[in-house]
């Protein structure tokens, strides 16, 4: 996809961070926007900023982890604009804690937003794009956590991001087999100066229990504080929008903006290959 003027972009997690930066870039290119976020107040502010470029903007207050809400936002977009040319499934959250202690509800929250929040939109939007038979693009936000080996710290996040990468790869396999003119990208950054470290402010009640002592533990509070510091020194948002649109124009599948993470990827792949090759030596 190389032409954007007059096209329609549906962006989840559009009120803050990466989604917001992407929305501003889309607006500057003359796109019509459907902004989706659970934070209605911030989303309306984002819509005002996008409107400064002359963009036509629809806002949909949505919990992407709830299929019915995600579906409703897609239906609202189609009712308003009649097409969806670019989907940026970006909404995400981050948990904190070790695999020994992190509560099950935090696993459920991470998978519900970071994985199923993408799946819900792929399920609804990909058939629309294929039926349109015009150039389109689907981009997902994962993380370097989706490409490197899992860790004992924050495993729900790593797990959900590996799954997000796999969803994007599955979409790519589909569009290639069908011959559809739909590009696919998955964004796998390290730290970016977003608002994700404040995602607890928007945690749905069904994924929360204030009485659980874990959330007052030194482990949890220390992990959260470290995350705040890492996010604060992350890649500036002003670089993100243009970089992601370049990936779309080039139909670049894996967008890894932080080159210092390449050794993490190589190490994981080498370990897999080395263990797989051991089977060649076995005579069972």
UniProtKB/TrEMBL annotation:
Q: Which domain of life is it from?
A: Bacteria
Q: Return the similarity comment.
A: Belongs to the short-chain dehydrogenases/reductases (SDR) family.
Kindly list the residue ranges recorded as spanning the membrane: none
For this UniProt record, give its keywords in alphabetical order, as a comma-separated list: Oxidoreductase
State the protein's name.
Short-chain dehydrogenase
| Entry's Gene Ontology molecular function annotations | oxidoreductase activity
Q: Which Pfam families match?
A: adh_short
Q: Which InterPro entries match?
A: NAD(P)-bd_dom_sf, SDR_fam
């Amino acid at each position: 996809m190389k032409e954007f003027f007059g096209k329609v972009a549906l962006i989840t997690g559009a009120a803050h961070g990466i989604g917001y930066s992407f929305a501003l870039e889309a607006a500057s290119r003359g796109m019509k926007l459907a902004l989706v976020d659970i934070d209605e107040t911030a989303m309306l502010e984002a819509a005002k900023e996008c409107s400064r470029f002359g963009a036509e903007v629809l806002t949909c207050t949505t919990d992407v982890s709830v299929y019915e809400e995600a579906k409703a936002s897609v239906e609202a977009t189609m009712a308003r604009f009649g097409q969806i040319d670019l989907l940026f499934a970006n909404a995400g959250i981050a948990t904190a804690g070790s695999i020994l202690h992190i509560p099950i509800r935090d696993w459920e929250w991470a998978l519900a937003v970071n994985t199923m929040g993408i799946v819900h939109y792929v399920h609804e939007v990909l058939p629309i794009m294929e039926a349109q038979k015009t150039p389109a693009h689907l981009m997902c936000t994962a993380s370097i956590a989706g490409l490197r080996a899992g860790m004992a710290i924050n495993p729900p996040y790593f797990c959900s991001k590996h799954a997000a990468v796999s969803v994007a790869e599955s979409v790519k396999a589909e569009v290639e087999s069908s011959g559809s003119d739909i590009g696919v990208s998955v964004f796998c950054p390290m730290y970016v100066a977003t608002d994700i470290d404040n995602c607890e402010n928007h945690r749905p009640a069904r994924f929360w229990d204030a009485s659980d002592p874990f959330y007052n533990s030194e482990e949890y509070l220390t992990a959260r504080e470290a995350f705040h510091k890492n996010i604060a020194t992350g890649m500036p948002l002003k670089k993100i929008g243009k970089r992601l649109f370049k990936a779309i124009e080039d139909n670049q599948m894996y967008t890894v903006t932080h080159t210092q993470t390449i050794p993490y990827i190589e190490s994981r792949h080498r370990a897999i290959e080395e263990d797989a090759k051991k089977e060649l030596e076995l005579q069972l």
